[in-house]
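URGENT: need a sanity check before tomorrow's submission.

F., can you look over the Coenzyme A biosynthesis bifunctional protein CoaBC record below? I want to be sure the sequence and structure line up before it goes out.
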Amino acid sequence: MNLSGKKIVVGISGGIAAYKCAELVRRLKDQQCEVKVVMTDSAKHFITPLTMQAVSGEPVSDSLLDPSAEAAMGHIEFAKWADLILIAPATSNIIAKMATGIADDLLTTLILATPAKVAIAPAMNQQMFAHPATQRNLKTLASDGMAIWGPGQGEQACGDIGKGRMLEPNELVEFCTSALKPSVQPLLGKVVTITAGPTREALDPVRFISNHSSGKMGYGLAEAAKKLGATVNLISGPVKINAPNGINLSHVNSAVEMRDEALRLATESDIFIGCAAVADYRAADIAEQKIKKQGDEMTLTLVKNPDIIAEVASLTRNRPYTVGFAAETQNVEQYALGKLKNKKLDMICANDVSQAGLGFNSDNNALTLFWHDEQISLPTSGKKELALTVVKAIASKLD
Ligand code: C5P
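Structure tokens as predicted:
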């Protein structure tokens, strides 16, 4: 039995598909897992707590403010008990509450309080599903790390035809099984150091030279490496995104600061990934006072920044497996292979930033991975998903 011994909370919100939950709980119990059911008030209009109690063999929980239920198992204890919380059906209303972090009943409170994986099986009228607000909320939930299973396409209880049907119980059981499969962690015990974001090269106390790098790809790589079991150091230039939990984050501004931090960490690392968009040049002198407006033209003298990744790749002792990035607007393969060789890298991930919607500042990217004797093209996908594929590809090359 694939789910044997697992603990699943089935959270039912108020949609017509709730009638399928009795079957869902039966099929989960067939897999010999423990199931507890939590219902919202509106769910009880569609299926009774008595039915759910009968199929789960456990009392149904529905209230946050019931002292006797809290005495049996407090809501925090309940949230910690679960290996998985599956909200099925997930109505547009509960999806909106989850996307904003509202916790006004037992189910929405458990969702905020649980360290477990949370999955939703959306079910609603096709027009409600297609509404920009629902789509926006689903995107938020996906970026918060929640799994979204379905919805399916077809005839709906209201007579409409379209996307919005809750997945069938057997399909949801399959999703639960793969979500709870022990994950393979190929980087367990490994240390990965990643540079991310832009650098800022000061000109005077108020001005700097920088670029549009958002840091999303580097942060995605950090999250992916963590997920695959690594201890992760992330050396980040100034960005507007939050770092994933559980990684060692160092904030830097200039390329020189980034180099110092990179060299400090590189020899303790098994893998070094240079994803930062490091400024090629910095001001020869940083003016102590704000530079005043002068004539119609002004000339800045810039000096070359250290090539951080080339320095790491040239380490003679404790050199990590070194991976670079190359953002190009033309001759992608030729330039990427040139950098792989000249910087003495083990691998380079190249992308064509001239393509609309890809690369810098975008949520999506497409990469080609080059080694000295091999290459793989990865199709366009979200940066997080792509990051996981890249880190898995790197892990597969380690001894
Ligand atoms: O030479 P280019 O900037 O195109 O090379 C890109 C790769 O080199 C990236 O991996 C980037 O993080 C790294 N790099 C660096 N230090 C620099 C310039 C680039 O580590 N000064």
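My own read: The chain is about 35% helix and 25% strand. Residues 195, 255, 274-276, 278, 305, 307-309, 324-326, 339 surround cytidine-5'-monophosphate (CB under 6 Å). If you see anything odd, call me.
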